[in-house]
Amino acid sequence: MANIVITGASRGIGLAIAVELARAGHKVVATMRNPAGSPELGDQAVKENLPICIETMDVDSDESVKQAFGRILAQGPVDVLVNNAGIERTGAIEETPLVDFRTCMETNYFGAIRCIQAVVRPMRERRSGAIINVTSVAGKISLSPFGPYSASKFALEALSEALAQELRAFGVRVAIVEPGIIDTRMARNIEGMGASKVYPQVRRCAALFEETMAAGAGQPQVVGQKVREVVESGTWQLRHPVGPDAEPFLTWRGSMNDEKWVQWSAQSDSDWLKSVKVDFGMDLKLD
Fold first, then answer.
1. Fewer beta carbons within 10 angstroms: which end of the chain, N or C?
2. Whole-angstrom distance, CA of residue 259 vs CA of residue 119
3. Residue 144 CB: number of other CB atoms within 10 A?
């Protein structure tokens, strides 16, 4: 059984990953910014007698990451790091404050780098280990108004590719797990995001998420199962789309060239609604 560190484990996908791996017998260190404010995982660990240790760590902070991994590594080596901590920021590029772009990159990209750098040397020296970065289908497909979020996930995908090249010769695996639309608080926030007076993509995507949630989006547990599969299989496969819509959406985007993709999102409301009906079988209504 492996010693596994998971970031962003307070709720949603991170919590599901922690529970899935602990139920399989792995020893899990589940990190989060404020354990006292997010007791659900700790309560579940006690109830099921799961091998989960809750650790305070803010991936945005150099010092917090340094101190947390100092405590973690003092207890033994980290066999697997799962970089799951993430936040969403959405909006048209013109209308989104610069601080939102920076905030998204700080957590989703630089936060992952901080944690990678904390464990990669001992993994390399042991010539074993795995680093699993949870990105998103939005790390392969950029759709307005997800520019701020997608930029951070694209960046993490690029970093992961380079890291995989560097660590392969040292026996350290790198994997990217790419969820589609998963029913989490983050997805619900997107469903309820405010409209733009200028850019129609904002309300369109809100309607798309609302319909997807109503029809039944993927559950966080499917991502936990995928991460467990990556951990236990020993696979060297780099990318792992997960969720009922992930592969279909990636395949659909791959079926068109860049110019057609841009036009798909840029067309009029009436034409966009017709396209959604044809492409996804959804009868959406725009407010």
1. C
2. 41
3. 20
Which of 203, 200, 213 lies closest to 287 in space, CA to CA? 203
Q: Is residue 107 part of a domain?
A: yes
Mention every residue, 6+ apart, whose C-beta is less than 8 A from residue 214. none
Query: Can you tell me which residue has the tokens 């110019």?
Result: 259
CATH number, residue 71: 3.40.50.720
- Does the CA dihedral 201-100-253-219 come out positive or negative? negative
Q: E strands within the chain?
A: 3-6, 27-32, 52-56, 80-83, 130-134, 173-179, 239-242
Chain centroid, CA 178 distance in Å? 7
| Bridge partners of residue 239, in order along the sequence | 176
Residues 60, 38: contact at Cβ < 8 Å? no
pLDDT tens per residue, range 199-247: 999 899 888 888 888 877 789 999 999 999 999 999 999 999 999 999 9
Task: Please identify every residue annotated as catalytic.
Answer: 149
Assigned domain for 273 exists = no
Residues 163 and 157: their CA atoms lie apart, in Å, by 10
What is the domain count for the chain? 1
